[in-house]
């Protein structure tokens, strides 16, 4: 339940997705832009939550990456992505 609570927070999955899509560490401002210019305070809070959960890690003061645990999370969400594509096609 703790994982679902964490992942269900506003913008959380988007931050994870954008970090995964970048394929490399990404700077705070670029991540903010990719997330439709969400507020810096919200992005900072989400990154803090994800860091405390071991899903992301800073590579320096302003650059972030998924950890191996974060990459495992993206892999684990693969079946949900497949299901969502089927669901979208049926709508």
UniProtKB/TrEMBL annotation:
The keyword Transcription applies. Gene3D superfamilies: Winged helix-like DNA-binding domain superfamily/Winged helix DNA-binding domain. Keywords: DNA-binding, Transcription, Transcription regulation. Residues 1-91 form the HTH hxlR-type domain. It comes from the Bacteria. It holds the Pfam family HxlR. The keyword DNA-binding applies. This is Helix-turn-helix transcriptional regulator. It comes from Streptomyces phaeochromogenes.
């Amino acid at each position: 339940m703790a994982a679902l609570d964490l992942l269900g927070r506003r913008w959380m999955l988007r931050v994870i997705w954008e970090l995964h899509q970048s394929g490399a560490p990404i700077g705070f401002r670029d991540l903010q832009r990719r997330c439709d210019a969400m507020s810096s305070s919200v992005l900072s809070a989400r990154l803090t939550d994800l860091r405390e959960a071991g899903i992301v890690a800073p590579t320096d003061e302003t650059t972030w990456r998924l950890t191996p645990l974060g990459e495992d999370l993206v892999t684990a969400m693969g079946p949900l992505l497949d299901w969502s594509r089927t669901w979208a096609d049926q709508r």
